Amino acid sequence: MSMIAAFYGGKSILITGATGFLGKVLMEKLFRTSPDLKVIYILMRPKAGQTLQQRVFQILNSKLFEKVKEVCPNVHEKIRAIYADLNHSDFAISKEDMQELLSCTNIVFHCAATVRFDDPLRRAVQLNVTATQQLLLMASQMPKLEAFIHISTAFSNCNLKHIDEVIYPCPVEPKKIIQSMEWLDDSIIDEITPKLIGDRPNTYTYTKALGEMVVQQESGNLNIAIIRPSIVGATWQEPFPGWVDNLNGPSGLIIAAGKGFLRAIKATPMAVADVIPVDTVVNLTLAVGWYTAVHRPKSTLVYHCTSGNFNPCNWGKMGIQVLATFEKIPFERAFRRPYADFTSNNFMTQYWNAVSHRAPAIIYDFYLRLTGRKPRMTKLMNRLLKTLSLLEYFINRSWEWSTYNTEMLMSELSPEDQRVFNFDVRQLNWLEYIENYVLGIKKYLLKEDMAGIPEAKQHLKRLRNIHYLFNTALLLIAWRLLIARSQMARNVWFFIVSFCYKLLSYFRASSTLKV
Ligand SMILES: CCCCCCCCCCCCCCCCCCCCCCCC(=O)SCCNC(=O)CCNC(=O)[C@H](O)C(C)(C)COP(=O)(O)OP(=O)(O)OC[C@H]1O[C@@H](n2cnc3c(N)ncnc32)[C@H](O)[C@@H]1OP(=O)(O)O
Ligand SMILES: NC(=O)C1=CN([C@@H]2O[C@H](COP(=O)(O)OP(=O)(O)OC[C@H]3O[C@@H](n4cnc5c(N)ncnc54)[C@H](OP(=O)(O)O)[C@@H]3O)[C@@H](O)[C@H]2O)C=CC1
């Protein structure tokens, strides 16, 4: 019997960010392994014209929850969607709901965050720092609370090369940052942002570091732990391999490469691709929840959930395997044949951006205009280039994360828990994982049918022929222009033609002799 699964039985669990990538997998695993849990409260907001109930209905009826419905048929009754907007000072939770949350919650998993790299500092602080502070304040009023688990990121201290499982201080106190956001106007905030984030690449990593400081400072008597996952990727094993539902991290770029938009990328092939499957993060999170509540460590423990020092894979290997998978499982209606290369210097990056990204987009938009349609490729390409520039920082560096606490926890688990809540990435086969990841993107993100693979292959063959035809035509035009302008080119051309003619005559003569 799994001790961790038994621990969550009968518990009232509060999850923020339950509608996000990580939150959904966390809920799924909780229901599947502890179907006797009492209730999961999810703090959520209506979105895209959907009410809370419609959003919950959609999640529970998705493929991800198919197994849950077998083991926990009354799962609908065990989810309590509570209206909350973490951008509001008191989360805009009703009095009655707040009363219930405060009096019943046993465990809190705080997953909600803005993970955008380009968010203005004010927005990132509100969600990643102020909301964390407010949630901790709520937690301190929960008499039955056993553990508070805060999800951070392994990149919160990406300005360092070696990162320990400790909370590093930022130069300006989070409380001061929160206060200043209340009275500074947007233009001043924009001006001071580069100074505040210092040698971090964006407001996301900076505010996640501030969030950790808040957790440390406001922890009081709470049992708290922090989990720092690296780049969260598709599921490895559970509930099935390859599940993914958003474009963050590598997923968006895999689509861009598979559809033939992305042809070159500024990346260091030998840099470690510290991707971690989302189900591994969830297993560690649930194990940490159990350990924190049951063993009550004296201080706030930080757990790195990374793959690099257990089972490293680099971007070069990942890129090659992604491209190899496209051969077997191509995406439908590709713009160009998938082929991408890593470039290492700025000049080559600019060159490939002009030749392989911008020029084809301009030509295609010109074609769309000619055929009376609305041009869209240049806009799409500009977005892709913006995304590439934001991700560049992470694919040209390697980090070392120490994992003492994570290894300690692994050794504390019973063999059964090690199996049910497996977070040992030494067992991960990268080639298999990447293939399933690409397949998952095709099925669950692009919603493409596997029956369309022969047609997709046929389409790629047509694109290859168009490519050859285009290159040949280009070569001939260039050559024709050269001949018209240069005597030397004419001489070379005359030499080649007469040489070919002689070669042909020779073969013809020798074949006549044989007969
Ligand atoms: C040798 C051969 C080599 C061959 C190589 C070829 C294969 C390539 C495979 C290798 C892949 C390598 C990939 C490396 C990726 C590394 C990522 C590292 C990240 C580490 C970060 C730390 C981890 C974390 O803690 S946080 C989680 C990560 N967070 C993110 O990833 C967020 C990033 N996203 C953003 O910040 C924004 O969404 C942004 C700025 C990218 C776009 O903002 P914008 O306002 O312009 O657009 P949106 O409204 O958000 O969306 C508009 C449009 O774009 C689509 N989109 C959104 N995100 C992405 C994305 N990441 N990639 C592509 N497209 C994206 C979105 O769906 C919208 O589309 P619509 O059609 O308009 O709906
Ligand atoms: N994905 C990754 O690669 C990594 C993620 N992490 C961390 O993991 C956690 C989860 O990330 P992930 O699941 O990928 O992120 P998602 O963007 O998929 O999910 C974010 C969640 O936060 C919720 N949220 C955002 N703003 C608000 C708000 N104002 N009020 C209420 N809820 C809000 C979203 O709700 P809604 O659906 O309504 O928008 C959503 O449920 C984050 O803390 C992130 O920093 C760490 C390392 C890597």
From TrEMBL:
The keyword Lipid metabolism applies. Residues 15-284 form the Thioester reductase (TE) domain. SUPFAM superfamilies: NAD(P)-binding Rossmann-fold domains. Its main location: membrane. GO terms for cellular component: peroxisomal membrane. It is found in: Peroxisome membrane. Residues 357-448 form the Fatty acyl-CoA reductase C-terminal domain. Catalyzes the reduction of fatty acyl-CoA to fatty alcohols. This is Fatty acyl-CoA reductase. It comes from Prolemur simus (Greater bamboo lemur). The lineage of its organism: Eukaryota, Metazoa, Chordata, Craniata, Vertebrata.
